[in-house]
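chain below, 327 aa
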Amino acid sequence: MRKLAFAIFFTLPFVLGSSIRAQRPMDWDKVEVKLQKLSANVYMIEFVSPSGGNAGANASALIGDDGVVLVDAGYAPVASKLEAALKTISDKPVKYLLNTHWHGDHTGGDAYFSKTATILAQDGARKKMETGDDLSHLNRVNLLRETFPPSPAAALPVITFNDELTLHINGEDLHAIYFPHGHTNTDSLVLFAHAKVAQTGTDFVNMDPSGLPAIDMDNDGNGGPQGEIAALSYIMEQMPDDVKVIPGHGKIASKVEVGRYLDVLTGTTAAVQAGIDQGKTLEQLRQEKVLAKWDYLNTRVMKIDAYLDRLYLCLTRKNVAANDGAK
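prediction:
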């Protein structure tokens, strides 16, 4: 993989604009921003709804004399609350904002923080933010409906990377590694090397009750289980046993929870791949209830029929691509 290391300091003009329009109304005035200290200078950030549930994707902050680094920024309407929360732990401005992927629950606050921050993301994330995507069609498979319109110019990443990026700041080595074909095709795993913290974006979710993995959430066949398996395997194999894992949604996790999620990914993928190898159609696998072992996870946004649909599409697309490459 190609690695990029840099220390560049400049700012962009501030433009306030929402990059996300959620289906269900939220009383943003009552959303609470919670900070959880994970190390001397790394904090997990949660956005909590009035009901105590999730009001956006988890984020994190790395603080120090060099300035604040945010990894993801939540929805646009809570950006000012996030800024106020950050001021309780640092008097420095947000200097960098790194996005784990392009979805608006992670990037909605980018425009707000661009008044001081340099925004960074994987190449594909910027491209998707430029065009936006209407995900309301997901309702046909009983998934959460959201529309992510194109991001305002100020919200777009000004530094992008292909495979890897390293940012050296506040005595920390912050690594971002791109893993394609996961929650989306724009996902990066972010590692705080010295703090022993990993942030997964929505390649990993740690909710109660548990649910099926959120694979290929753009529903275009470009995501899939492969990227999530690779990213979580990296954590299990390369990070220390006491690593703290910030999920895209849910509570802080350890290798125990990551391992369970990985087991579901590998088990369901193997079951569907075995059927594909036998020449079975999607309808045959559905009738055979190939994923019956995991029915207990049919509880959250991703329903089991939709999950099977996506596994089949992504795995057959992978097989076609592999065969084409062998010619």
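The chain has one domain: 5-254. The helical segments are 79-86, 104-107, 110-113, 123-131, 225-238, 255-277, 282-287, 304-326.
thats it, cya
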